[in-house]
Amino acid sequence: MAIHPQDERLLRRALELARAGLGLASPNPYVGAVITDAAGNVVGEGSYTYTGRKHAEILALESAGEKARGGTLYINLEPHAHQGRTPPCTDALIAAGIRRVVASMRDPNPKVSGRGFEQLRAAGMQVEVGGFEEEAQKLNEAFARYIRNGVPFVTLKSALTLDGKIAPAAHQTRAPESAASSKDGFRGTWITGEAARAHALELRHQHDAILVGIGTILADDPLLTDRSGRPRRRPLLRVVLDSHWRLPIDCRIVQNVARERKDDLLVFCSSAQSKSFSERKTQLESMGIRVEEIRGLDPNHLDLEIVLRGLAQLEILSVLIEGGSTVNGAALTVGAVDKMFLYYAPKILGAGAIPFARGADFRPIGLENIHLHRFGEDFAVEGYLRDPHGA
């Protein structure tokens, strides 16, 4: 849609304010709001955080006060018109005398989508929708997937060489845990460079949970923490798929939880079939680790649907998979992945190195809506397997 330069600038500001909620708004969407007075001067701004409770438009209204009357609201997401944790924002906008609303997108929740705009129009406001819609949709793609389908939005991330390998052969030198992939390593150095690894840490920060298989734990002994240094409302939930109860008690991630009592490690295992497994579960739980038993969990055919729906019950909106070949192959085979973010380095690992994905049932896939990113000598391919805003 064509957009006036003033509207463009202020919608961009609203999106910027919305991004300030990364790590702080989940399980609700990221929302930023700007209010101008009747003359077009900015008089109020707001950025939503979950613990702050008040929505972005309410914060902006409070900042603007009486100057909001006859003014314009710029916002990246449709104001809500239903009673939730807070009263309807549409009622407050009408009472404040807002004359015009410029928004990027409708609420992705099909039960309420459009109702906010309808109520505002019925009150005589001018409502314009669609500016920077693609950017706004991407910002809240995890919320859209969760609210429409009841499962988290899943991003599969990995670092690869040009020949599609994620780790060297067993005889080659391995590096410790990498920010770009828990499987990185190339003769003692990372597969990807510092810029790519720094961006990968930002991806971790943007997600509610990180998921790996037991193979990654055994091979790399990673911590899987959010090392971005940025604030977040709740700790990054670390999820390990361990079908045969092989998680070592002395590994770093277990000892980290036991030492700091963070309550941020969740292990999915097969149902215990012996006394030794039951004892292991009791031991892990006594150390502060959450254990969920799933019947039929198998490294060659992971029941990720059960895992993801279990995470959704914990209000986990987004999951970042940083697994090895088996987990990557299984996640793609069962259709659990929404988006992929693949970092490529100009290196070759050759025969014997570990491939990106494997599995007897693995079939070719294609990505859509591709975006390319450059990180020094490395580059990344970002692409989608499905539309999170689809039904």
Structural features:
nine-stranded mixed beta sheet; globular; alpha/beta; 391 residues; Cytidine Deaminase, domain 2; five-stranded mixed beta sheet; 30% helix; 12 helices; Dihydrofolate Reductase, subunit A; 2 domains; 21% strand
- What structural category characterises the helix and strand content? alpha/beta
Give the ordered list of helices and strands.
HEEHEHEHEHHEEHEHEHEHEHEHEEEE
Number of helices in the DSSP assignment: 12
Strand segment tally = 16
What characterizes the major β-sheet?
9 strands, mixed
The total domain count is 2
- Give the overall pLDDT as a whole number: 90
CATH superfamily membership of the largest domain: Dihydrofolate Reductase, subunit A
Principal-axis shape: globular
CATH topology of the largest domain: Dihydrofolate Reductase, subunit A
Helix content percent band: 25-40%
**Rg value:** 23 Å
By CATH reckoning, the class of the largest domain would read Alpha Beta
Taking strands numbered 1, 2, ... along the chain, how are they ordered across the largest sheet?
11-10-9-8-12-6-13-16-15
CATH architecture of the largest domain: 3-Layer(aba) Sandwich
Low-confidence stretches: 174-188
Provide an overview of this structure:
This protein starts with a helix and ends in a 7-residue tail after the last strand. 30% of the residues lie in helices and 21% in strands. The strands form three sheets. A nine-stranded mixed sheet has the order 11-10-9-8-12-6-13-16-15. By secondary structure, the protein is α/β, with parallel strands linked by helices.
